[in-house]
Design brief:
By secondary structure, the chain is an alpha+beta fold. The chain is built from four helices and seven strands, in the order E-E-E-E-H-E-H-E-E-H-H.
Length: about 170
């Protein structure tokens, strides 16, 4: 069992044409709230983002460290959400961009390296292809069974990243 904070689904929103599932959870250690946004792209590809609720209005909410010293339970909570979605959507795949810290290059960011290390533990290479674009700190967990049905899926996922994340190209 993955040790994570209890989380709650809040709402389904739309960001343009992209549905967004919004969750939140509260750290039992710091009592701070976090927001998790899961963008749902075609082919059941889900892109996940999270931030400290107190940073909601900040343009740098994805680029700053909180200084609260609890990255593992926060990341584990996001993984628990992905695992729930994996059960609900049997052909689902997942992705993220490891946002760069202010002043850090986009190439293989600190967050990207941490997320990659943790995700390889919880998403087996037996079932998922771990696809990386290191120069942009982009990471996708693509179900092998879905690739068999759609050999162009990785190209389509790269297009989702390119079309929806600033400065991806």
């Amino acid at each position: 069992m993955l040790p994570h904070y209890p989380y709650t689904f809040l709402t389904r929103q739309c960001a343009g044409d992209i549905p967004v599932l919004v969750y939140h959870f509260r750290s039992t250690k710091t009592k701070r709230w976090y927001i998790v946004r899961v963008e749902q792209y075609p082919n059941d590809f889900f892109g996940i983002k999270f931030y400290l609720k107190a940073d909601s209005r900040s343009p740098h909410k994805y680029n700053r460290l909180t200084g609260l010293n609890e990255p593992r339970p926060i990341i584990y909570t996001c993984i628990a959400i992905l695992m729930e979605l994996a059960e609900r959507y049997p052909s689902s795949s997942f992705g993220f961009i490891g946002a760069n810290l202010i002043g850090e290059s986009e190439n293989e960011t600190k967050r990207f390296r941490v997320y990659r290390r943790i995700l390889t533990t919880y998403f087996s290479e037996e079932h998922y292809l771990h696809y990386q674009i290191v120069e942009k700190s982009a990471y996708a967990l693509v179900r092998k069974s879905t690739i068999e049905q759609n050999p162009n899926l990785i190209k389509e996922i790269s297009t989702y990243f390119s079309d929806n994340y600033t400065n991806f190209d």
